Amino acid sequence: MAIIEGSELIEQLKELVGPSGYREGDDIDAKNYKDMMGARAVKPPLLLRPQNTEQISQILKACNEAKQPITPQGGMTGLVSGAAPLDGELVLSIERMKEVVEVDKFTSTMTVQAGVELQKIQEAAEENNLLFPLDLGARGSCTIGGNLATNAGGNRVIRYGMIRDMVVGVEAILADGTVIDGLHKLRKNNTGYDLKQLFIGSEGTLGVITKAVLKLAPKPNSQAVALCGLKSFDDVANFLVHAQSSLGSNLSAFEVLWNNTYQLIDEYVPSVNTPLADNFGFYVLIESMGSNTERDLELFLDALNQATEKGLIEEVVVADSDTKIRNIWAVRDGAAEVIGAGYMHAYDVSLNIDDMGYFGEEVEKRIRAKWSDTVIGLFGHIGDGNVHIIVNVGPDTRNAHLEIDEIVYTLIQELNGSISAEHGIGIMKKQFLNYSKSDPEIGLMKTLKQTMDPNGILSPGRIF
Ligand code: ZN
Q: What is the pTM of this model?
């Protein structure tokens, strides 16, 4: 199915977008095809950089007629190898569609083109005294279109949900070029199937998202952060219940580092200052955000005092300045930097919280039974049931990828968890999809794909 340079379709597509709307040959930047997760680097014959919805519609129409596969891409910060092209695919980048179209204070919405970076959206909301609550490490380079296509999660899901919960309307293009214009600002719109949700989290396989109307929240004006040392995972779970009932909707993050990750950060990320001793079983970063600075801080300190009195937390450091707030968050974010310090496989799974303590011990035991020198770290957004695992089993690490996957995902299946909490399936997890989805569910997904993209041109081979 691979196309030949200079073919009729290539010429047609170039004409469609004009000279600044495409790149080919050595002008294609490695970031548009080099895959940091899948170790794949297939340079596409053509990179398309359309400027608007109409051009994308025409590109897809032409590709569909020629049965030419094409992969849409955003900021290329995905973690499951979904957006880098496979052999014979063209690339459709939304990198030139960067306009914040409108911020509407009356409906608390923002209308954007798909190529706007997440951080620009956060800033545009803030300028209007509002908040776009999605936040994740790649904020500076990921795009909202990619965030939507992969249903991004991040640090504040506990309070605001996944990006799926922050969208009012979406404009998307089907594989045959049909424009599905779902752009509106109506929060209540109960008129049959919620079509935007088909595109959100479809990882580019059901359509290309071109614009969105995002839901904004009131901007909190208080922020309090503490790092706590705890003895056992039972204490972590009980502390979460306590925090939820005492802080209510002010609870905006509940992030946990297992002792193994805390030690790795101490050892491999010298730029981070760890404020507590390294002998606690677990470390909880707890954050509260609200609308009344004094009252919220009092509520936060009360909640921590009660937790100490109940014996749930052993020691606590409360940040009393913006610098210290940043420092505590840097400890949590340090977990991601450990991965770069030495080659490690990273996992993103979700579980019921009462299974998590067992999971942490058992997954280490099973991996260590095979590779006794294993270095492993667990951490994650525990308030949402989301654990990340980083693993190095020694010199075998790269080659042992599938064997480690098998151990981790088998345990997840035993505990009825999900093999992907927030990263998606892409190519890296597709052979394990049936560990978390039943045959009838996968069957229905395939029916949708067949109906919406009968020629299979959009990101073929991703998810299943
Ligand atoms: Zn995460």
A: 0.92
